[in-house]
## 1
Amino acid sequence: MKPTTKEDIDPFEEIIEGVKHAKGVKQDTELDVDDLKTLVEKYKVAVKAKTGKDFPQEPQQQLWRAIQAVFDSWNNDRAKYYRILNKIPEDWGTAVNVQAMVFGNMGNTSATGVGFTRDASTGENIFNGEYLINAQGEDVVAGIRTPQQITLIGSKRWAELQGVPEDVRKNQFPSLEESLPETYQELKNVQEKLEQHFKDMQDIEFTIQNGKLWLLQCRNGKRTGAAMVQIACDLLREGKIDEKTALKRIEPNKLDELLHPIFTPEALKTAKFVAKGLPASPGAASGQIVFFADEAKKFAQSILVRIETSPEDLEGMNIARGILTARGGMTSHAAVVARGMGKCCVCGAGSLNINYKQRTLEVNGKVYAEGDWISLNGSTGDVFEGKLKTQEAQLSGDFGLIMDWAEKYTRMYVRTNADTPKDAQIARKFGAKGIGLTRTEHMFFEGERIKAMREMILASDLAGRQTALAKLLPFQRSDFEVTIRLLDPPLHEFVPHETAQQQELAQDMGLTLDQVKQKVHELAEFNPMLGHRGCRLGITYPEITEMQTRAIIEAALNIKAKGMDVKPEIMVPLVGNVNELEHQLKVVKKTAETVFQERKDTIHYLVGTMIEVPRACLVADQIGQIAEFFSFGTNDLTQMTLGFSRDDAGKFLPYYINNGILKVDPFQVLDRQGVGKMVELAVKNGKSTNPNLKVGICGEHGGEPSSVEFFHIVGLDYVSCSPFRVPIARVAAAIANLTYP
């Protein structure tokens, strides 16, 4: 056990370090029998001081206490957080397995280790892993002793990374292949057999007791996103699995790891090198140093720096941008957990001297304090001083192969939510088939646009609003090429609320400050989410809908004149009554016809609605008679169906999840039993009166794999998500089609 927070420092580590210091040794294995007896007595005293009870001496009592401890561990804070992180149901429970021990600490012909049939970081088809002579399994993963490599090639690679000369490596850090060659060969044969049987990369834990090999457990190994793609494609090329199996081996969310920035070559050229560790989990991260997991939130971007991590550090590891440890190898807790999270991590940087009490990191005479910036390269193991510039990751050919499979096996296609040309370009590169949501309001917040928008809002009559809208028209027209949602947020979001900005606006418009303040006061609402927004704005001020429709149609005609095919879809937001859509539909069609006559040209366009009000789901058969498409706004639909404010739910949702009231955050993972039923009902009702109705979803759930699966099951035509979620949604949609054809 290791210190996790400033209040929680385990006495055992402190005691054993004291015993070693008193004897003048560094390794646990250098303690003799008398030293261990001293250690036991000191620890018994510490246990009684902390618990008020003597350490039990009767074996049966020790066993039952150990069993109870395992059961109790299911409900500790760390386990609860792990379940939330990995979406493990609260009601699964845990089990205890009691079995005889084998011992890897019985001398120099005993050892313990962890092996992988392929590289868990890169996916390279090479047997690898770490071991320790005369040690127990916990010593390898806990990072207390820096382990040695199983294979000779792995040992030589490690030495090169660490700058260890070959003669030193061979004498002081020999591989298992060199130390116990016969046992190594047996282990190598076993790992080949296990991978051939399971047809996937295996994580193997083993112990060698007096020269005899024992396998403790075998499981499909955790891997990085890059390794996941590499291994799936290699197994296909090797003929061990087919294409569909390879695609189903892809965890969609882990593709996110491949899409994040790396350090730019220019930044690396001028970067000040600090230390070298092991490349435990790839990627790049810059942040301010924190030394305790429970303080990872202290800075907006933090790097968690530890001697070694433990399960108690889980939440802080998830919050931090990256993880740096002084001890531990590629199978240490920090390395395994970071890879599972897709978090940049550098382990075993032995030159670091970390002082928790003083909150400092010293290396080669230079001291770094809490809050100092450092940067980690998890792909090379390098640690740099300061904050380094990043660039987008370069995707491999195998990533393209995965996307080809996704295209081949999907039924439901993927669009993107994009408000800027850059967003659209990124999404197109990732294979998006269109734009499922463009939020027009985001275009009004820049420069001259916001001035014209405020002029429209503050105008006292129709003529004034039309004058201001005429100024907005060119801006809107230049932005549109695809699917667009008409203005949605309440008008008060566009006006200034600070007196200085109100004064500036008053001067620009020739108004008094009091007139501006009065208008801002009139626009204020008690519950803006349910207030004057969405289609209600277009009904109150049809000239807004007219301006936006004209901009969309004129932009589409301009694109057509350039010889390009354009298919605009106009979405009317927040409809809960068919009469609302009918009102806006008349305005849109009348305006479009006017533009067609002016331009002496036409284009095909669709008019539909966002389904985000529960009542719209119930009367979707009526709405479907006049709508040409539905796009589910699951963010607002979740708010209104559950009665949760998305902005305020964070105050109580953790308690709901911790107490089993909810299993997951419904704003992250679709609530199938509630919101999902509304979606399913709306699809069924809408298509009952309009079999050609196109249905999709443009809420945040469109990029979440389990939600994408549900949308496939209920028959949606597409999902739309943020640009960097497009590959994730594409793979999730294809896997859903293979699972539920």
## 2
Amino acid sequence: MQQLTLRTKFILITSAVFLIAAVAVSSFFSGVTSRIITAFALQSATSKALHDKNKILSIIDREVALSLKLVDDDLIRAWVAPGQSSAAKKAALQQLESYRRFFRDKSYFIARAADASYYNADRSMPPEQPRSSRLSRDNSSDSWFFDALRRVDTFEVHLNYDALIRQTKVWINAIIRDSRGDKIGIGGTGIDLTEFLQEIVLTDEPGTAVILIDRRGIIQAHHDKALVERNALEQDSDKRTTIFQLLEQPAEAEQLKKELENLAGQPRRKVAAFPVRINGHQSFAAVSYMPQIGWYTIALVDFSHVMQTATFLPIILASLFSLLAVITVIGYMINRMVLRPLNLLTGAAGQVAEGRYDIALPVLHRDEIGRLTQSFNSMAATVREHTAHLEERVLQRTRELTDANQLLEASQSRIMESLQYARILQAAILPDPQRFDRIFADWSVLYQPCDLVGGDLYWLHESGNGKVLLAVLDCTGHGVPGAFMTMTVNSVLNHIVDTLCADDPGRILQEANRLLQETLRLRQDGESLVDAGLDIGLCCIDLEQQSLTFAGAGISLYYTDEHQVSEIKGDRQRVGYSGSDLQFVYQNHQLTLHSAVACYLTTDGLLDEGGGPKGYGFGTARFRQLLSENRGLDLQRLFTVFAQRMDVWRGTRKQRDDITVLAFRL
């Protein structure tokens, strides 16, 4: 036996003892329990599959019916069709509100094929004011819409992550058709994933599980919520996790594929049941097809949980006795052949740890323990040699690290000096507060770049004929790139008002759009690697006539009087981007001013600032409420309230965008 390795000795002894116990237990256990467990597991899995199928259909059938009714509504179809009017949109939104009240999730969505616009409303949104965004074929998160338009005929039930509302839901995508039967959009509702999993998949029954898959085997619902959300976020269906990947045996995966095809092709066949091994457990799987939604429900019953432990108590006692015998023998042999030699090595290692590197153990056997002892002796000798030269190596490495640290500090210092200088240059183009004091009876500004410098700017120009130009703008980028854009835009605006026009905000924005595209060379192929531009709100104030002309590109003008807070929306056409229309005419809006009217211009940095318990943006509604609650304050005190409210809203989160808010009153 001494010629055998330790591994061989251990395997031979353990195998012999285990086989003796296994033969005795297996012959007794198999004959008594095999048929009982199989029959009971089959019955349990079949019953659960049918029960879960009916439970799912009771939830989804109602939502599908409402969704199909929604997409067939004449008012909604009239709005979704190309060339819709504002009146059609208003009527459709009112009609959608009536549907929303009856949906389980109190939500709906509409996606128009004509302009790829997307609207979504849930219980958190005010009536007739859905969220909206623009879908793009280039955005992988929007591929669901274009894919559904291409392949879905009536409706589909689909699990997906919605980037607009930042939620994963079970979506019912119903096709909207015009009077000729052409597809013009998609509408429907969603069911919250957490609620759906809690009600359908998450079960308190031990040893049972429910999995929902579609026709391709892609998992739509599973007790592992992370797996479901990962499938929802993955836009490429070929990369989503399927039920076949969870099966440990390829033959079981092929059998499942055949059963899925048979169930779909044989409506009278309700359930197919067979054994599978999944996640390391032997289970019975019962599969049932739901043709109404094109999904399958798979009920899994773990063999080990089919019967109560007390039912097989004699078998369990025999198994425990056999296992105890095996463990006793194995423990004795391990102690004799492994633990004792290892104790000697442990003691020697402790002495090395205390600094005695001259330790050497005798090599008594030619097995793994003997080779380990020999390796330990070599290690101790190597440590003894390296320790003699350790101090010299540490000093050398310390010098290298010190030199590298000094170079890093010098580089960082130069970068900070450059940023401080850039901050001084950017501050130099901001209007002097004394000019505001001379022009306005009351004014204030909240200017908070996200970094030392930023992409926001407020701008003032006096034309000399009793008129004043005032603007707030938000350029592409943050930090140094944003600061460069503000310098460029400042120069362009000054050039326009000095040479072309100083009293027509709409024309100034149109000319700025043209000059910026020429300056940045965004329309010349190969000249620009990035797209750049800005949002701007521009006011022309006639001090003598007490009036204001406003034009905006992505920025609105808010104003308050004795009664209410109002908003004049800017045009959606941004300025300077390569995709901006050079022929676009920005609309001028007129406003009469008096001492009770206060005007506000703000960039999206304040409106999008994340905070609150869920990290949502501050939003237009909170901003308007803040103005309404404090419109009696002077603007300096109001902006103090602004700053305090934003600090409370942001909490411990870091500011994520440049913030500029400018207010004035004549």
## 3
Amino acid sequence: MPIMRSSQNVIEISEIPSSMQSSQAMEAPFFATVSSLVPWIVLEIEKLIENLDITTCLAIFGVVFVGALYLIHVIALCYGIFHLHKIYEPDATLPGVSIIKPIMGTDENLETNLTSFFTADYHQFELLFCFHSPQDDAVPVVKALIERYPDVDVTIFFQEHEIGFNPKINNMIPGYMAAKYPLIMISDSTIFTRPDGISDLAKRIMSEEKLGLITQIPYCMNRVGLANCFEQVFFGTSHAKIYLAGNFLGFNCPTGMSSIFKKAALDQCGGMVAFKDYMAEDYFFGKNLAARGYKSGISNQPALQNSAATTFTSFSNRVGRWAKLRIAMMPQVILVEPLQDCFPAGIIMALSVHYLFDITVPMLFVIHFFFWISMDYMIMRVMQNGPLTVSLIQFIGFWLLREFSSPVIFIKALMEPSVRWRNNIFHVKMCYDTLLTLDGTHIRGYLLTRLIGHGSFGAVYEAKCNSDTIAMKVAVEEEDLLVEAATLQKLYYSDISPKYHFTGRYGPYSIIGMELLGYDLESIRESTPWKSCQRPTLIRMAYQMVHCLQALHEKRLIHRDVKLSNFALSQPKTPGNQVSVKILDFGMSHEYSDAEGNLKEDPRGFVFKKMRYSSYDVCLGLDPAPKDDVIQVGYAILYAGGFDFHEKLKSPDNELMNWKRELIRAPGETLPLMLKFLTPFFEEVGELIDILPVNHDLLKQRIQQCLPEMNASSALTLTEEDGNPVLT
């Protein structure tokens, strides 16, 4: 049998065609040759790596970096040709759109821009005009258009109060809360829309279930004037290519001047109010939606800006403001952004290729220049959807002016971090907006799972490590965080503040790990049906708040930033879900005297008289003292009891100062009717003097006298009803 199998094998081999035999005969030496070359190739690569100096590495990096910029041009041009200026047929099945128009002031083109929305070709929409005040110059323009187009669904809103840091969000909140359609469009007053502009946005966002945000890529109407033409060249070239390529590659790059989103999607992120303290709210809309699985994109039509007030100065200020926000949110752009313009990139490419391949620098730079400007010209023609309104010579002139002015604007943005928006000036801290988006980050073995809150001194996250859950505060300013850490350590055994765990650094941020507390008292107030705590609850809250100040002042510390949101409840304990009130957020705290009673200065130089919730004496210019903490607690107690203290703070300066003075001089006459039972406490507050220690025990007695039938020192309990916290 073995011999027969062998003979069969010989017969099978002999039956193989001669061509295949020769092929196999050729393959054997080929693979042998390749195998012998592998060690040589590996050796040559090792030699290359050994001889690779820093200059060669930089040259290779330069070629790759600028090559990527070339690729961005190509992607932007191709994506623009493919994606922009598509025309959709009207679709009556699309949902209704609520269009929010934030407006401040007017110009010659405002009526034209707004008219384009009144006459838009869409089957179901409403216009929600949001003004800062009834005295705005644009109000008569809108009212005249309402009379001209009575069949259009229009509502006018005036800003009621400031809910956060971002003035645009403050302006739009009333409109957002009143919106009745599932799609929300935000459109600035300078935007002109084509008749099918709303339909294009609605069709695009409803094309995919997971599309949550669609923006219109910024461009400009055809307008006369050098500054207007210059602005159009900017938005049609360098700005357009970044937006087109970025959207194709899936980066988050929305724009707030004209966008549409699904209201249900943004509500999952906390609604518009959740972005009240973000300056670049459009960027964070996209970022938060992406974190919940939604995608962003751009529409088929550009946003046509049509401001009548464009000047070279206003343009540079506007672009500089955007640069300042990018630097604050993404500090790494400092290293990249100045190098992505034509001339810096050309110098890098020419020198790199010259070093690697010995090709002359001038020739390389000329080739680079003509490629760059040609691609920008073609991209702008795509944005324009036809011939440009400027000649080729004019285009080159405006293009060169943009390229040469760009580094000047960027350097100015670095040197002057303050941002002017409308009538407001904001001081932007580098990395501040970024520290609000650290969910999912691991720091010191802890995973930051959710953002609890944030303020002027940083953001607080819930952080978990196995079964251990703590609060972690992240801040940009190290000095203020170190002050807070020192205060927490001094109060460790007082049981009136979060327990201190650790302090450290994470990249550009300073961090504190501390005990995780429960609801803050302002959240408790907001969860009540009438935004008012019941009297028995209020009395016990007040008693424990004064107790917190007593422990703080006994350590010769003053808080100086006492408000309802800076008190929180401990985690519930058995029996009966008992909780206690604790004080937090010690970024402004100060050790006001030494052991011998000598007063100590705070080198940080806070200007407390400008804080509208400061006490009467502090607003006059006196330094905060322990009694001023007590007065601020009084304001917090009134707010918890249903008095709208935030609304009172909007009063004219003289009226507010008179109210603060009379509240402690004649509380029986000044307190609102529903809170007059607190008169004994406020009468005692009025007796406090700077040079004398605060008698906290006496203040507690006065709180007890406010409601004698209730034991003010008894425990508080926390329960839930319909998912809302209830403190009793």
## 4
Amino acid sequence: MSEFHIFGSAVAAQFRRLADGELYAVQAEDLFEKYLAAFPEGSNPVFRVRTEHDCSCCKHFIRNVGHLVSLQGGEITTMWDVFDLPHPYDKVAARMSEYVRSLPIVSIFRTKEGRFGQPFSNELREGETSPIRWTHFHCDIVGRHRSNRPDADRGAVTTNVGVFRRGLEEITLDALNLVIDLINENNLYRGAEFRPAVQTFMTLHMEYPRAGTQAEKDVFVWSNVRNPAALFRNTVIGTLVVDLSDGMDEDAAVRSFEKKVAPENYKRPTALITPKMIEDAVAKLRDMGLESAIERRFAKLADVSVNNVLFVDNSVRGTMKDGIAGLLMEEVRAAPPIITNPTPISMEDFLTQIVPQASSINLLVQNKHLANFVSVTAPVHDDAGRLFKWDNGFAWSYDGDATDSIKQRVKRAGGNVDATLRVSLAWSNFDDLDLHVLEPDGNHVFFGNKSGKLDVDMNAGGRVSREPVENICWAGRLRDGEYRVWVNNYAKRETIDVGFTIELEYAGSIQQFSYAKALPGGQNAEVMLMTVRSGELIRAAVHPGLVGGSVPQEKWGIKTETLVPVDTLMASPNHWDGQEIGNKHWFFILKGCRNPEPARGIYNEFLKGALEPHRKVFEVLGAKTKCPVSEEQLSGVGYSSTRKDEAVVVVKGDRINKAFHINF
């Protein structure tokens, strides 16, 4: 068979191509016998005592290399996938390829040998003067495939395949999703650190051809065994997922996990929400007829009775509940007001003395009001029962899912909000941000040297919060000189809800400055340089990386540092219909103000007493049942009775055209 050299060269070239990547061995113990049987009848004649292709050199090659395959691109390619061969080798190659493909993969290919087979050999027959040249299968072993410890290399990968396969088969998608939820709710110690591993394995888990053939499963497992997530089942976070997949109680599984990774004195930052707790909360809602009440939306003007507002612009009065349609108002042609010297007035006097004269109100929306943006929310179903302490289904949500101000958050945390000078830091994730101030005398105020001035330090290990604040304040006369303020991210734990806000209060005036970017772990963000002369704060030079002060900004369709028409002025729903339940807020609902983000409609502090035992569930429920974005909504700027604040308004009416400085 003089054309065998074509076959041998084609197989050698195929090996070189496949050897550029990983090679895998299938379970084939009788491969050379299959090779000989693959020749069509009459195409492998007997030469001397054996058939012509029954060669010891080729036998060595086939038994050691002929069972190798490649999985590049997720497809099986064999050594025998060579084409355009002369007869009978085309038939032999096709049959060998089909047979090798039918066998299971059992290991990677590793060997100490540098070569199998040889290109040719010469035989000098008796009585002949010229040798006969025989060609053979052959290949050289190079790169990763050659090893001084092939058995150990193969064993290690085969063990990993077993771990990977068990993880794919035994771990459930429900358990993976549950662990992701626990991490997102900060219910796992170092959860954010484990999130990438869980998500990577989850991707593999969903791609695994669970309903496919065994061959398809084998190809997937061996193709991906080098992925670090292949050993997920044997990691500490993997053991938690395995326990949950095996049906272990959620709380018990998490406790078992925490024993392995958490320090002995670790306390979970938020209580674990178990399926049983959710079932109990849902049962309570069902008993009280409140299942539909948890569905929330943005409130709209037509929802609100004119009897529950303090002022309504005539241009929108007709769209309100209980209002009169079609009212017309004559245009007021008064001279533009001068707002450089607005008349000071309390909110109570403004409501009783000024609002009754007003046909229009314009609010000067300032940068310091950026955290005051608020939306009123309502139940989706008009006949829904009452979730809240007051006798209506309405509520409110300040920007950032807060129901009150930074100052109020500091006060709740035990910070001094009545000092001469206050610098507060607020952010919205589990990172451990730290506020630092270098005083004129060189004293460095921070968590390691509180100096009686740093009185709130949150997320510093142990219990953490999604509404953390830090507070540094100075009482009495201020020392002259410069105060450098900066923020350091001591421990970065999350990549969501990044950035922070600085609130500066001095002499009753509050200003806020925001840093919108993610602050990498261990890095600083310069905030401001404050200058004090003769005991008075005379300047606060804010770093360019923060926005605030008097630079106009766009928010919710409103441009700050401009006068914006007020559609309606109302008290918070807990003070409607003669009720006085809890802190009072005043909402200036602005024309064209649209909250572009889903708003939280349920807060634990709003819930009626019967739902108090289920606060943990409602904390999660409130985050998952936000009001979908709506074009029609009641949004604007709010002011709280618990916070010393101020606003400038311009009021017009038949007998008034004047600016006022309202003190809350």
